[in-house]
Amino acid sequence: MGRYVVSKWKKTKALEEYESLKQVIPDTVRMTKTSLQNHLKEYEMVYIKPDSGTFGNGVMRVKKTKNGYRYQLGVKIRDFASYSPMYKSILRHTKGKRYLVQQGIHLLKHHGRSFDLRVMVQRSPKKSWETTGIIGRVAAPRKIVTNYHSGGTLVVAEKLLGQHTKNLKTQLQSLDKLGVKVGEAMGKKFPGVCALGLDVAMDESLTPWILEVNTSPDPFIFRKLPDPSIFRKIRRYSRLCKK
């Protein structure tokens, strides 16, 4: 079994086999004209994303509005009075690729900009799963994705979460445990995988939502943390992974 799993759909389905994880995965379906419309009826705001893709490329936010529908790709926003013309316009961007529709989570904000968290999970030298780092990613102004490679800013997780909770230690511990759970679930389904990057959104009730799991996570973003021992450990585990 390979080390990398490209399909977001396969990874989502693997995690949904575990009830405790299914509860914190936004409702995700394959995109069709009907499934997108149904998701918009139910959630009013959704994200659509390519089944295989990186760095937030191709991700769109779609909303039901008072006057119809709206979608955003990058910083461009388009409004439509009815559903069919909007869907036709979206298809011009998806270019025949497989896309998923995901229930929209309203992210916490830092100075008016949305943020999420990257949780690094790796197999340790003893082959058990361990959460080795957590870092915050703040979306660039007017953008909907937080990815560093799409203009997002890396910020210490404690700084971001500390503005929204007095129980910072408890929140970080629960993210740590969530990372290990996901590692164990993914490891059973895809035995070759040895490093994961969880994209975790926190909503206003501080519920963590697993937006995506990356099997080829960038370790170098953790160099931005003030504690250099975190990056050193991540690099050490990464080298073991390659052996």
UniProtKB/TrEMBL annotation:
Entry-linked Pfam families: ATPgrasp_YheCD
Domain of life, per lineage: Bacteria
InterPro entries per UniProt: YheC/D (IPR026838)
Name under which the protein is recorded: Endospore coat-associated protein
Species this protein is from: Paenibacillus selenitireducens
